[in-house]
């Protein structure tokens, strides 16, 4: 199987590693707007060769679109124009509604399978690619009724090879759930980093005093704006709803502190603890 | 050396493990309002025996106060009433100003050393005690000018044995810095958990979709209200300042989303990324 990975960063690179390490007979062609990324990917042996889109795409059985979301909006229709009826295109993007609306009436729409492997780290670029990133995690398949059945099978084979299990959502539900469980965490973490950077000018003090709890909460604040701003742009409305709710929850803690309502504060922490039942 | 640990939970229990595993000849007496905790601590061999305060305290060279902060306010003056000039009292509490103000004029004030080992997990109780919790971390020594020099030496010996290094702060600076690097992280995490629990009624969906990023950001939301409410109560003013700043940072992201000012959003994420320079 020849797999073309378009955007050879954390996700694309990690998927390349997983496929190669699975024992599957696979040749990986890397395509990327950055020649520097391609060179790094070749040196790390994430890809077997690099190629421009025009010559790379026709040689692939599967094309994995793994660029930031804004580039995907431009690339997906172009790829659909290029592929034939035996080729499959997958994406790994964090938002779906805008992407799918843009290709809704494309004559080759069926060759595309919208996928969201729920896995990642706060790092980016081919140097951030790691083995086993996807293992044991969930891959969301979105609006599969609009994809050809054989293309869905190919997508499942790729992510199952990487160790993933599957769930199905429609694009609107996907974007809404991701605003809750992923996008808001990033905004909260960025805002927390800014809060501390703003208030705590003495950086050495943060370094000395910050315990692992702080590090855990701000870990996502290391994430790349080039990746995340397009996500927030495309999922703006859902993200705004969840952000409003988050600010409201913080404001209630604030009011409780001002009123010295520590019984109420205690009760709300006890409620927050219920997240334990959901996350291990 | 006989060490009395008053409050045999995560921190007291982990310190007992560290002292015992260091090879130091140490006998640990556990004292706790909960007989259930004491029984667990004996079964886990965190402590060699349990005792009531009245008979336990006089037998100890060092007393480690490791209860929630509200109990400390009551216990510290009582302990100072009981100890002689060869005994040392340490605490491990997360706030200092209120605690120290309460014993400022106590005739035995010098026997107390205010300590804050910057280490912990989101769990609590003797079952949460773990080896090496303190190793490589920083212990803040607070207002040591008010402690007897030999008592400070004892405190440093205890935490150095557990693998810690030291920094000094006055009580006001300590409470302010901890509001930044610890207390606000907890409130942010509690609020994020509440946001998701409020908005996302379908718990199975959270479980399936939540990736490690979300888990990292809400990890602290598992923390005990019995431990944290007294901290927020005692550090209320500093926490309110930092919370106001945090809500302001989130509100700016909100405004940028409403105005679709994604260039500004990008710039602020890039600034947040500077937290990388501080945290590894």
TrEMBL record, chains A, B:
Transmembrane regions: none
Gene3D superfamilies noted in UniProt: 6-phosphogluconate dehydrogenase C-terminal like domain, NAD(P)-binding Rossmann-like Domain
UniProt-recorded Gene Ontology molecular function terms: NAD+ binding; prephenate dehydrogenase (NAD+) activity; prephenate dehydrogenase (NADP+) activity
Protein keywords: Oxidoreductase
Keyword 4Fe-4S: no
UniProt record, GO biological process: tyrosine biosynthetic process
Keyword Repressor among record annotations: no
Prephenate/arogenate dehydrogenase domain boundaries: 1-280
Name listed for the protein in its UniProt record: Prephenate dehydrogenase
